[in-house]
From TrEMBL:
UniProt keyword Hydrolase present: yes
Keywords: Hydrolase, Membrane, Signal, Transmembrane, Transmembrane helix
Pfam families attached to this UniProt entry: Peptidase_S9
Protein's GO biological process: proteolysis
Organism of derivation: Rotaria sordida
Domain of life: Eukaryota
InterPro entries from the UniProt entry: 6-blade_b-propeller_TolB-like (IPR011042), AB_hydrolase_fold (IPR029058), Peptidase_S9_cat (IPR001375)
MF annotations from Gene Ontology: serine-type endopeptidase activity
SUPFAM superfamilies for the chain: alpha/beta-Hydrolases (SSF53474), DPP6 N-terminal domain-like (SSF82171)
TM region positions: 12-32
Protein's name according to its UniProt entry: Peptidase S9 prolyl oligopeptidase catalytic domain-containing protein
Length: 699
């Protein structure tokens, strides 16, 4: 699946090599990278051993540097990464968020900690102790002084549930880090956590064998590990999904009641119930599902909704069908009820109204076997009645967030290569829609508990790494974090990125990005011509820790990146246009876009250009290499994890729905010509330009 490249693949060091090779004429070179193999029983992860006094923030490190230097990929990886901002659940006067930091300056270790920020004074406190290899995540601010979260701080090294107790006067009382209290002590990692509003129930997930308990699964894994077994027998698909072999354990959600003890520490007050016991399926779904999006407790906490896929048979390899199930927790012995089984495409991300147990919204697709189909919002009212919201709107919704009064929704979606935010007012009456944020990339909305028109969120762009922002009810937005300020002050970067459009294939308007070199446009500059993966993706106005435009521009390159036919965020018809056209419409767009850019940005030296792409972009590099009318315009080509033989991919890939849909709905044997029509392997005789090939052993 081409979209692997744009979801969680780590090839940072390959980019470092890439930057040094883009203009040099070298013979074709293959670099293969391989990650360390996960332990078969997913026990404790390796923890970097370092002394307690080894901690240094990137601010301290960069403040110690005397000179400003050109931004590099090493600087990029040293940036703090901020996520998951949450208001104080009662008064909204402060915020807690996650901060991931890297060991300075060698990057040999990272840690994720909880941070507290006072919105009135801007005082910032690191709540949990930074320890290399330790990561706090998925936290829930329960009340004034209580936080529940996941962390691998347990002595076993496994991820468990922890509780943090905040002092009454946090600023005065906190002179050192707050030591969290471990709540669970299972023999397996806890991978996901969700707590209801009343803190009376929670859901968590472990990877268990479908018919075994947590401890029975641990015993079975231990037995298998000690047996030295290295051979597995598979009798159904998936055998492998992305970079993971399906050897038995599944992500299962467990529901449990919780209560405070006299010392205010939480404990389980019932036995956890495996919602999917004896079902060979995952929830959250693999490989990218999580509890935040795919699970939901109702307003009273008496109902639970979850998304599941149908992994029980080999049909999963041809199906994008996911369904939403609900379970009534107010009565014992209740079974899950499917509320979307009449739709054979994807239904996912249930979210209950914060005020009404009978109402939930979710995202839904209508085309079977098409993962890039438009996502629409469905509203379910508990009586098996569903309403499609904004049914005539040609936008694909990515995330839906309720206002606290339950009367409106905040929508995150891609629009013309930006991740924007809309507000859908008067949900149950006139439904008024307003765009609130138009530029950059905005995610992770958390709405103020007392003001439904105020929220915090993460924001980034090509010229700004991720920060946490506050959006006020007066329509203003401001950054409330500055962890990377010292680093950014010591590097030279390009101050701008701009869009341009041209007449592309079929005469359609096609858009692209231009970023000039950080040292200006006064002299001729080489070109980095970037080709995105997906292919149903886009070059979004977003910071990247991988294919970062600044990593090229700071080395003196101009950057041109085209969002060709098949890219998302320009309407569903434009996205769909690539079906059966992998080597035609996008290829023509890239040719026309390159010509237009060289004419419009005359400082770019056409004789010093390199084309580089990953995943589908890597496929396109191979396609370009075989077509001299395009390949000879570049001094060198770079392909990262690209598909070289489309017929071979059709026979070897695991998500069969993907290749079969994108060639027009055919298998490799029912219509071989559909796979050969745009197959780069047939044009190798035309290869003339040197090429750097980067391969990931798990891709």
């Amino acid at each position: 699946m081409f979209q692997q490249e744009f979801k969680y693949k780590k090839f940072f060091w390959s980019i470092v090599l890439l930057l040094g090779a883009v203009i040099v004429l070298v013979p074709t070179l293959v670099i293969a990278t391989k990650r360390a193999k996960d332990s078969p029983d997913r026990t404790a992860p390796a923890v970097t051993t370092r002394n307690a006094d080894d901690y240094q923030s990137n601010s301290d490190y960069y403040q110690s540097l005397k000179n400003v230097h050109d931004f590099s990929q090493l600087d990029n990886l040293r940036l703090d990464r901020l996520s998951s901002p949450r208001f104080h659940p009662i008064n909204g006067k402060s915020v807690i968020y996650l901060r991931r930091q890297y060991h300075m300056p060698d990057l040999r270790g990272s840690t994720t900690t909880l941070h507290w920020l006072d919105l009135e004074t801007n005082n910032n406190i690191q709540l949990t102790r930074p320890i290399w290899g330790i990561h706090d995540r998925q936290f829930f601010w329960i009340d004034n002084d209580t936080i529940l979260f996941l962390s691998n701080r347990a002595s076993s090294g496994l991820t468990q549930i922890f509780q943090l107790m905040l002092p009454v006067d946090l600023l005065k009382a906190t002179t050192t880090f707050i030591e969290p209290i471990q709540i669970t002590n299972y023999s397996l990692n806890i991978d996901n956590l969700l707590v209801n509003r009343q803190a009376s129930r929670l859901a968590f997930s472990c990877q268990v064998y479908p018919n075994l308990t947590i401890e029975e699964t641990f015993t079975q894994k231990t037995t298998e590990k000690n047996s030295g077994r290295t051979v597995y027998q598979f009798d159904k698909l998936f055998i492998r999904h992305w970079d993971e072999y399906m050897i038995g354990p599944r992500h299962h959600p467990f529901l449990v009641s919780v209560e405070r003890q006299a010392n205010r520490i939480f404990k389980f007050s019932s036995e956890p119930i495996d919602v999917l016991f004896n079902v060979d399926s995952d929830s959250p779904t693999r490989p990218f599902g999580d509890a935040k999006t795919q699970w939901s407790f109702s307003a009273t906490g008496n109902s639970f909704a979850y998304t599941r896929q149908y992994d029980e048979t080999s049909a999963v390899a041809w199906s994008t069908n996911m369904d939403i199930y609900t379970i009534d927790l107010s009565k014992s012995g209740q079974t899950s009820v499917c509320i979307t089984c009449d739709n054979l495409a994807t239904d996912t991300d249930p979210s209950y109204s914060p005020t009404d147990d009978n109402v939930l919204v979710y995202r839904s697709q209508s085309k079977q076997g098409y993962e890039s189909d438009q996502f629409k919002i469905k509203l379910y009212n508990g009586s098996n009645s569903r309403i499609t919201l904004l049914d005539d709107w040609d936008r694909s919704i990515q995330v839906v967030t309720w206002s606290f009064d339950g009367q409106s929704l905040f929508l995150e979606l891609g629009e013309e290569a930006r991740h924007v935010i809309y507000h859908l007012f008067n949900l149950f009456t006139s439904q008024s829609l307003t765009r609130l944020i138009s530029n950059g990339t905005s995610h992770e909305i958390n709405v103020h508990p007392m003001n439904s028109r105020m929220f915090i969120f993460t924001h980034q762009s090509f010229i700004e790494p991720i920060n946490i922002y506050l959006y006020s009810s007066d329509g203003l937005m401001r950054s409330i974090t500055d962890h990377n300020q010292a680093l950014l002050a010591k590097v030279n970067m390009s101050p701008m990125a701009e869009t341009f459009s041209f007449s592309g294939a079929q005469g359609d308007e096609v858009w692209g990005w231009h970023m000039p070199p950080s040292n200006g446009t006064d002299k001729r500059a080489p070109l980095a011509f970037l080709i995105h993966g997906g292919p149903q993706s886009s070059w979004y106005d977003a910071w990247s820790y991988r294919w970062n435009f600044q990593s090229f521009s700071s080395q003196g390159y101009a950057v041109i990146a085209i969002n060709f036919h098949g890219s998302d965020s320009y309407g569903q018809n434009f996205t769909d246009s690539i079906i059966g056209e992998y080597g035609s419409l996008p290829f023509e767009d890239l040719q026309l876009g390159l010509s237009y850019a060289l004419k419009k940005f005359s400082y770019i030296d056409p004789n010093r250009a390199v084309a580089l792409g990953a995943s589908y972009g890597g496929y396109m590099i191979y396609w370009i290499a075989g077509h001299p009318e395009m390949s000879l315009r570049f001094k060198t080509l770079i392909s990262h994890n690209g598909v070289f033989d489309t017929r071979a991919m059709g026979y070897s890939t695991e998500e069969l729905w993907f290749t079969e849909h994108d060639v027009g709905g055919y298998t490799p044997w029912s219509n071989p010509d559909a796979y050969e029509l745009y197959n780069p392997v047939h044009h190798v005789a035309n290869w003339t330009q040197p090429m750097l090939i980067i391969l990931g052993a798990h891709d």
